[in-house]
Amino acid sequence: MNIILISNKLARTKSLTLTGTHFLLIISVFFIIIVLSSLGLNYLSLRYADGIKSPLLRTLLVNPQEERHRKIQLHLHNNLNVMAIKLGQMQAQLLRLDALGERLTESSGIQSQESSINHVPGQGGGHAVLPTEEITFSEFNRKLQALSYALDERADRLGALDSLFRYGRLAERVLPSIMPVDTKWYSSGYGYRIDPFSGKRAFHKGVDFAVKAGTPIRASAGGVVVYSDRHPEYGNMIEIDHGDELISRYAHASKRLVKLGQVVLRGQIIAKVGSTGRSTGPHLHFEIRYKDVPQNPSRFLKMSG
Predict the structure, then answer these.
(1) Which 8-state DSSP code applies to residue 188?
(2) Which residues pair with 15 in a beta bridge?
(3) What structural domains and CATH numbers belong to the chain?
(4) pTM (2 decimals)?
(5) φ, ψ for residue 85 (rounded to 5)?
(6) Backbone dihedral region of 136: left (phi > 0), alpha (psi from -120 to 50 degrees) or beta?
(7) Please, is 78 exposed, middle or buried when counting C-beta atoms within 10 Å of its C-beta (0-12, 13-18, 19+)?
(8) How far is the C-alpha of 294 from the C-alpha of 205, rounded, in Å?
(9) pLDDT tens across 24-34, in order?
């Protein structure tokens, strides 16, 4: 490529010949200038970006990607502060669960290490003022996850204890465990005895309480009345179904105070003591049947302590 130079001071024109090598050198110089300018702007943006107050200069000097990264960091920092507050709330909740679990454990009488709800090793040492360090997001996430597992574990254990107590209270109410009349001795026990009418050895399916006529008869446990009528042998008789094929029977009453299908509560008065049916005098004949098989009432009544 030839370039012709014309000047009024020159007597004649001059020509320059540019080869491919010349073009390559020129392009290289321009490229180096552009690279150096970019590096210089990047250095200024990193070193002086925070101190630049002019929006125009800041726009020119600060790398857009660096600005985006700074905004993301600021957003994460703000969110981390909020989540740290949530972590403190969850730790307080864990302390309350531990306190409740400890009370439930003591009330249940369970002393095994496996059932211990709140078992924190002793800690101590001198107080030292250390420089504060911000918790990283990954570290915080691990702590939060561990705390979540701990809360779930505490909730499961407390749920198990609560179910245990609920079952205990329910069993106490549906098992015939309180005395049906106000006395502490049997006039005739469960098992074989001499029948007062035949004089022969016979099996007595319940227990007898010899008390005055008119003495209140109470339901030994809650349930539903499945029989309230007069029986040829038992006289005025009441049967209460406690569920799971467990029934209590109250016989020889002078008066029945509950009806068929009625729901009765533990300790509720259901009849009055009498001497109806096959009886030699005022008393209560009390039976407990499981799947229609007579059971020894003393085994149940002893549960009431």
Answers:
(1) B
(2) 4
(3) 2-62 (no CATH), 65-107+136-174 (no CATH), 191-304 (2.70.70.10)
(4) 0.49
(5) -65, -40
(6) beta
(7) exposed
(8) 6
(9) 777 777 778 87
